[in-house]
Amino acid sequence: MATLRVFTDRKKSCYNIDSAKGSKVLVRAYFFYGNYDGKSSPPSFDLHFDGNRWATVETLSDQLVFYEVIYVTKTDNISVCVAQTAPNMSPFISAIEVRDLDSKMYSDLDLYRALMLRRRVAYGTKAIIRSTDDLYDRIWVPAVNAVGSRTSTSIQLATNLPTTEVPIYINMYFSEVAVLDSTEIRSFELRIDGKSSSKPFIPVYAKAGEMVLSNETASSRTNFTLATTSDSTLPPLINALEVFTVSDELTDGTNSDDVDGLVALQREFDVLGDWGGDPCLPAPYSWYWINCTSGSTPRVTALHLGSFGLSGLLPDFSSMTSLEIMNLSSNGFSGPIPSTISKNKKLKLVVTDNPDLCTSGKSCKTASGVDTSDYGGSSSSGKKKSKLPVILGTSIPVFVLFWVIAGVCALLLHKRKSEAIAAGNAAVQAGGGNKPYGNPRPAQMQMAANNNNMAQNMVHDFMINVQVQDQQEPVDQNNQQNNNEEEDS
Q: What are the structural domain ranges in the chain?
């Protein structure tokens, strides 16, 4: 309790704790002000769990206060939140504890409601009992000895209930502390406002017995007593007592599809990751950058993300089917708008001041003149895919074809000149000087023909390759990458 964390910049601040869905848990939150800020002004604020109201925390200058709730989890996550209720009163928290309970404990508990601890006492002790033998780590506060002095004496049970009537759940624990002879009997009953409300109870020596009171409403004005039955020779006793109020029906929380969409958004952009707890509940403590419908399972209807400094590609919000407004202005988004957004006719989309965001279809220019048609994926880490390979794929064959043809022509010209000179020299030597060039020899003629055929074949093959390439669709590197990723997964 020597340390705490204070929250000064947000209406609601939360801790998220992993749990198993359907677990019965005890959650405890501690608050020790200790005048940490030197203002001698212990604050008051609200406490929530899993989107449900828990309590109004009233801290004290020099005393520890704690609050405890027992319930069955609806998801695999427990959230504990503090929420500011008044200006200049910053919520804080000193510690959080979570304990898994046996499913048979508090078995009369409605699975759709929670037990809020009001009092847990052990009678006849002088110190707090927090036994290492108790797997559930319950804290028992000492109370005066609770054994009547004579049979006519009843035991008054202090409950610490609120002034208004609320549903209650009370556990009473009994164990006979003496070995009784055959003539002795200890028998008593619970009375509420003087009326019998239980069957006679006879505690057993050295064994624990339990009496549970549920499905009742009561307040601080309600009178709970243990009184002897007519056949009892000994006064009543009680060893321990737990008093709870019963919550309203627990919420299922914000629609799970909307929660999934918001979680994906938080994973994409770190600046949004600090928001925790239920996005919409309890009202009016929703995240300030969303709007929600009312009801036990609210839907998210608006995202107000203007001027958040977000950048990269827009995620897919297809799971958030109730969105009506999406304000993404003054950020650094780039690439195309997902079709699930652009084709949503009921969605009002605001994307001003995002110069690199493509808004006019599959292939378009951004405000900065960059073609974004080949953006791929939905991650902000995605990068623009260059169209250079496609351009080169069409321009290089024409360029090479030109130089190949030119080279072949030069080669043929050179060969013909060489052959003509050689033939002329041969003719001179053979007496054929009346013919300036003469006739080439058969072997030289064949070589020239072979060279000419080889060049023609090269050009022919090259033209066929170019035609084949022109007939093929250009490969989309983004689609190829996505297909590979799908195959890998």
A: 1-105, 114-250, 256-358, 388-471
